[in-house]
Amino acid sequence: MLISTEYPTSEFSIVFASDRNDGLVKVYVDGDLIEEYNTWANVDLTQPLEYQVIKTLKITGLEYENHNIKIVASGTNGDPNDVTIYRYGYNCPDTQVPEFPTIALPVAAIIGIAFIFQKRNEE
Which spans are transmembrane here (predicted)? Predict the structure, then answer.
């Protein structure tokens, strides 16, 4: 994938939606290799976006000018892989969004405990 910035910038973010089919990418800025980034995540294939792991690669320290960004799926052991780019731009989040079970299970446990204590108070 080739991206050309529309405006001068000194930083750029790429957000990946990752699952088991995703893998290594090489990111070039103005022809120079800036980062080799692993987008793999332990998530089953063909899951909706809310079940995938969202990973953000933030590139900083660039000269304040227009840039050409090239993203190449490099695979592992010579095997190609898929890379899912969810979005890219100047102001992307720089944190990873946790997988759904990471949030849902603790919330369900807290609600369950509150329900048990409520029943005890009624008796």
Answer: 100-117
